[in-house]
Amino acid sequence: MPLLLNKVGDDGRFIDALPEGGYPFTDEEDIKKQRKGMWDIMKKLGTNLVEGKDLVSVSLPVYLFEPRSFLQRLTDTWAYYDQYLPIAAKTDDPILRLALVISFGISGLHQTCIAKKPFNPILGETFEAVYTIDNTELFVEQISHHPPITTWEMKGEGYSFTGQAGYQANIRANALKASQLGPNIIRLPKYDTTIIYEQPIVWLKNVMFGSRVMEYYGNMKFEDRASGLTCDVKFNPDEKGFIGRWFGSSKKSPSDTVRGEIKDSYDQVVGTIEGSWLGYVDFTDSASGQTKRLWSIGHNMPNYPQAIPNPLPSDSRFRPDAIALAQEDLELSQQIKEELENKQRREKRLRKGLTE
User: Fold this and answer.
1) Helix H or strand E segment including 344
2) Which of 4, 99, 158, 322 is the most interior residue, by most CB within 10 Å?
3) What is the pLDDT of residue 57?
């Protein structure tokens, strides 16, 4: 289930975050089950087939799952929307407006620190929900089976948040890397602008052995097209190369550090973003030199959507395999899951036959 990581250390980061960076998984029972599942898959497919294979297409045993669909899980990362998007929709300063959207994008990343996997959505599956704090409506739908693509729409006062995401995940050398591919789009009609950003890459270290740690790496690129502002937020920006690790003398920041420069259309720095995806986001306005903490894991409280009454029959909450898992009937859940997967494969072959 979603995390409430509200205990922080002196550095503003989640108190259990590793000093060198990253989120540690410490539930040995869950880790043991997951490793058994991966070894079973390797025995079935062969190690060489698993290495580098897109795991999105691999069928996994239900004891590795939580009783939710990915459509429901996806919304966890938007848990702080109410503290940023409605405010951005009324903020005249385009630099601060972009900083608020950046804070929204970064603040929810720690919500993905969940050991268990959600169920892969079925083609046509939906999730309808509402944020009761302000009656903001949310609709999520799975529009493609292979490749898997999810699309969503959130409508609030003065803004909309839409997007679509494809997914890739593979294992190489005891590490799992996963990507959410596709644009996140925030429209602010009052300012006739659209802000688009991308997600960073998830890096789960020590999947098969060793102490398991979750990291993000790469960049999140934000673009405000109307104002010409951009920001390239770098994860683990102080990472040194091979030579730097041997000869560098400066102290390295934790690997969960994030840092970026907001630049105008003339490539001039007009603001900076710095913090940790496991702790906080600070924004500094270059003109005034003032720094403001826009997000703190210890003070900002998350807000999760509630499923609406009487949703479409395709809603995630009606999935029989997830319901069986929630009732701790693993045998029935596994049976239904396999039936649904086989049904999707048959329907895919039918669709392919109709288009050839």
Assistant:
1) helix 330-355
2) 99
3) 64
